[in-house]
Amino acid sequence: MKAQALHGHLDALLLAVLEGGALHGYAIIEALKSRSGGSLDLPTGTVYPALRRLERAGYVESAWSTVNGRERRTYQLTGAGHGALAGERASWQEFSTTVSRFLGAAPA
Fold first, then answer.
1. Do residues 26 and 32 lie in contact, with contact meaning Cβ atoms separated by under 8 Å?
2. Over the stretch 7-49, which tens digit does the pLDDT of each residue have?
3. How far is 76 from 84, CA to CA, in rounded Å?
4. SS3 track for 29-90
5. Four-point Cα dihedral 14, 19, 20, 24, nearest 10
6. How many alpha carbons lie under 13 Å from residue 98 in its C-beta half-sphere?
């Protein structure tokens, strides 16, 4: 799946991945790939700008740490991020229900 197909949904996916706890950037990319069964193999140039955007919005906070001599930036949800994720889930449910009325099983 191409990154452009996710337009408007990437932020929600990132928030959902971070719901499970703090992760560094590469682990976030791997979680997206794993949870999607390999469909979401997004480049860093797509994911990192989105994480910075979420951080500026106050939904994610980050901190630098050193692991095995390597610097890593770890991201985690804020309280506002948890609220935003709940809103994204409600919006997605409404959207997918509506679209399913058209693209779901063919009428009998």
1. no
2. 789 999 999 999 999 999 999 999 999 999 999 999 999 999 9
3. 13
4. HHHHHHHCCCCCCCCHHHHHHHHHHHHHCCCEEEEEEEECCEEEEEEEECHHHHHHHHHHHH
5. 40
6. 6
Record the pTM.
Answer: 0.88
Kindly state the tokens that stand for 26: 């590469």
Q: How far is CA 12 from the centre of its chain?
A: 5
Q: What's at 105, amino acid-wise?
A: A
Would you state the structure tokens that stand for residue 100, as one six-digit string? 């399913």
pLDDT of residue 2: 59
Q: From CA 49, how far away is CA 26, in angstroms rounded?
A: 13
Residue 93 CA to residue 36 CA, distance in Å, equals 18
